Amino acid sequence: MAGARAAAAASAGSSTSSGHPPPQEPGLGELLEEFSRTQYRAKDCSGTGGSKVERIEKRCLELFGRDYCYSVIQNVNGDICGHYPQHIVFLEYESSEKEKDTFQSTVQVSKLQDLVNRSKTARCRGRFVCPVILFKGKHICRSATLAGWGELYGRTGYNYIFSGGADDAWADAEDVTEEDCALRSSDTHLFDKVRGYDIKLLRYLSVKYICDLMVENKKVKFGMNVTSSEKVDKAQRYADFTLLSIPYPGCEFFKEYKDRDYMAEGLIFNWKQSWDLVQQTQNYLKLLLSIINSDDDSGLLVHCISGWDRTPLFISLLRLSLWADGLIHTSLKPAEILYLTVAYDWFLFGHMLVDRLSKGEEIFFFCFNFLKHIISEEFSSLKTQRRKSLPARDAGFTLEDICMLRRKDRGSTTSLGSDFSLVMESSPGATGSFTYEAVELVTAGAQTQAAWLAALSERETRLQEVRSAFLAAYSSTVGLRAAAPSPSGAIGGLLEQFVRGVGLRGTSSSTL
Questions:
Q1: Is 211 designated active site?
Q2: Which of 60, 69, 304, 367 is catalytic?
């Protein structure tokens, strides 16, 4: 392992000497070093470590301000949520430099702050619905899942006893219904109240689609239902939303990714379908992109259990994919968008990189290494926009065709176990594979095709630059944790990925 790190360091050095180093954002190294040492806590932003975090937050605000006018939801000292940024950005609209001088908020910030304060207890660890991306006037939000009665009635004790750091470690125990627990506590209206505020916040943000990445319906510990999902809310409070259950393996599954020498191809979770981790992640991203590219003005919420592993994975991929198409953060360079998504989407929203690295659960690394799998036109929102200009008969299937839960099922107790195949229930043909074959573009003129190919080439270039910059910075700070060399003597998969990512030649494994 030490030899692998040394080889990577040597490769990084040769990159500099060759005159073609991956582009770096000033402060990215400091960010990754801080990230790999401690989990961000808003209340700890003091002293030497606090000054570093303040610089990170300030830089994020500067990068957001390049292309957007925004308001700030105040979370000083973590008063609202301990693992959310102290200054939560609420993007209001894209703007030019001239518009920024005359910026006037289009929302009632005080009302938004009040809704946030009232709704925070509705979700696990107080991780309320938070807007993080603005695309075509739609808010893409993130959060944790709904809090169960155990947390609602004793948040302080719950956090102390159960917060052990695992996002998805659940125990088999007898399920306890929310209704029974509420009766025991002599407060049958508690769930109506707190979840009512959660729904008001969702509606204020115009969110219609809720994508739930949880594998289970509820998380039970020691006989207590500590978290739940909108899809099993028995009072059907969320019946007016479109619920999409897209179960995705938790952070502990990514130890297998590391143990397989960081090769996701062929790595399959316990599902009765043929997708490996690459195909599953690709298909889920296509689904999310299809939702936000739909014609309505509705926003999107993405969450898992705690909202700090699988959630930032897909939020980050969405941000980078839309940026690569030139549709958001249009003025940011590859190194700058990399800094923004690492700092804001991962670090400042509480991802536990220290814990994950100690366990080999490298979901953070997977996210940025995965960019090589989304460079094609299948993931381009530009393609979606062009497709909408086609006649209706060529438009292919609609969003409703790929929604997991039909209208009659929304808000019901329908459960999706780990043996459920995502699109098998409702996709055209039910082939177990989510593709865009039904929505391929018709032949266009030569000039239009040339422009389209140029745009696709730029997308690939931009994403590859982000990936290369990440690999170079990650290897020199956090360090590469390569698996043992294979019996064939081939170079480790991770080092091979790094070498290809930065365009270098690697050494053979015999020198490791």
A1: no
A2: 304
